[in-house]
Amino acid sequence: MIELVDYIRLLSKDGRLVTAEQVIAVAGLDLEIEDVEVAHQQLIEDTQYQDVAIIAGEKDHYFYSKRFIVSTYATQWVGVKDGKLIETMASYIRRYSSMGELVAASNFTHPPYNLEQTELATLKEKFSHTEGCEDIHFQLDRQNNSDTQGYYFSIKTMTTTYAKVLADHDPFEWSA
User: How far is the C-alpha of 11 from the C-alpha of 35, rounded, in Å?
Assistant: First the structure.
């Protein structure tokens, strides 16, 4: 497993989580790991490897380096990888709403989501039609004329009125 650490770190720099099989293939090694969780535990007993983390998906375990990837990103990445895009996005939005913040729709054009602009247009409907995600609402950005430019929030922790106030920001309001 030690042979894989540098590859895990290198791929983590690019925001990628990898399975043991993937990193073994990238390294070009002839190595087989019976139990990845046990191998990981043995690895992190040495303090120089404690940045290597493991997270379980539905089918696979993924490795990443905590030097480059935080656990919340890893959780989102695995959720998207496991085919739970809308549920993962809803969880992300709820977390920020609970802190009193809106989530810009454009955030979802970046990893781990990588949505196209055309896909952003259908998100509102997807949230409202996905069981357990009906609390996710959209607030248009009044300064843009596009129906995809705006912010998401959860009505579980933020009122629509407060979301409108946050979305109607003036960039010069705090310039003094």
Answer: 22
